[in-house]
Amino acid sequence: xxxxxxxxxxxxxxxxxxxxxxxxxxxxxxxxxxxxxxxxxxxxxxxxxxxxxxxxxxxxxxxxxxxxxxxxxxxxxxxxxxxxxxxxxxxxxxxxxxxxxxxxxxxxxxxxxxxxxxxxxxxxxxxxxxxxxxxxxxxxxxxxxxxxxxxxxxxxxxxxxxxxxxxxxxxxxxxxxxxxxxxxxxxxxxxxxxxxxxxxxxxxxxxxxxxxxxxxxxxxxxxxxxxxxxxxxxxxxxxxxxxxxxxxxxxxxxxxxxxxxxxxxxxxxxxxxxxxxxxxxxxxxxxxxxxxxxxxxxxxxxxxxxxxxxxxxxxxxxxxxxxxxxxxxxxxxxxxxxxxxxxxxxxxxxxxxxxxxxxxxxxxxxxxxxxxxxxxxxxxxxxxxxxxxxxxxxxxxxxxxxxxx
Length: 405
Known about the structure:
There is one protein chain. This protein is α/β, with parallel strands linked by helices and 405 residues long. It has two domains: 4-269, 2-enoyl-CoA Hydratase, Chain A, domain 1 (Alpha-Beta Complex); 312-404, no CATH class. The chain is built from 15 helices and twelve strands. It has helices spanning 4-11, 20-34, 75-78, 83-95, 116-130, 145-150, 177-182, 207-232, 236-240, 249-254, 264-281, 312-337, 344-349, 354-366, 391-404; strands spanning 16-18, 52-53, 58-64, 66-68, 80-82, 101-108, 110-112, 134-143, 155-158, 163-165, 246-248, 260-261. Strands 2, 3, 6, 8, 9, 10, 11 and 12 form an eight-stranded mixed beta sheet that branches. Helix 4 (83-95) runs parallel beside helix 5, helix 12 runs parallel beside helix 14 and helix 14 (354-366) packs antiparallel against helix 15. The chain is elongated, with a radius of gyration of 26 Å.
């Protein structure tokens, strides 16, 4: 029972981005706790939240269960997924040179507001820095907060019976004053600040408390609808016209909330085909594609077929290109932290070498007053120059000169 106040505080009197049906389930589960009854979670029913990687380099990142800012010790037992865990998985996939694309496997009815929009911004920043495609599939639900995450993808799939949408915000207030009176309990609040005890469950919701909570809900709703409108290329009016409705399969595509009806297997096949075409048009070696069976429960990832290069030269070229792309991605990430935008995929497509890219960043930063903050990968032992020049910039320039002249 010691965790009950924490659970209640995360559910009542605060805006939530969760579908109504899921909210009913949560309230039904928490109700017995409020009445002093014990409840248990079926851990066997909780799906795995581990990231998987297909043989052709697609990372499958799960976005499953009720989404919260922090899951804590309850996460594994109750099916909670923390936004921070999703961010870490996506970031790990984006920075892994062996991973070429990311697919979000979404099956969630939403969750908390706290941390959601920060995660969305982080996903978009990661995409801009790594240049890897990020797709998503709703299998079987991407609702409310989960849809906010799914719609950040470059392409969004939904299964035939999958549910999308519920673009809305809800807040709950439970008035227990009548039950308190029947139990012979009377609550007195000694407080400073008129709004300090607004929305507490032992008093009816006051007009001022209701207005404050409604204003918060409205502001978050505006932020949510603006996000969906931008990512799905819809007008804000069209998003609001959904009235937080839930759309299945073809209906979701017709409403502009998804791009295609298809399973996880279909999305993987389509994404693999795009990567294969990209590998032909860009100087990045592709992994051999391996057919995948329709997932049943856990996703069966077939073993990677051994790749047999025709010559040793091909193998050497592949290794060099992978190392080169990894170095360019690292330079891009460093440059982004200093406000210099670089597209790694475009740099590779144009045949720009890492040393040339590093020189470009240095040239742009040389005119700025914050050039001393530059972090550039360069071997130690560079020859010192003028005492007034930053040692970090000096080492980077020496490294660029040795590699590219």
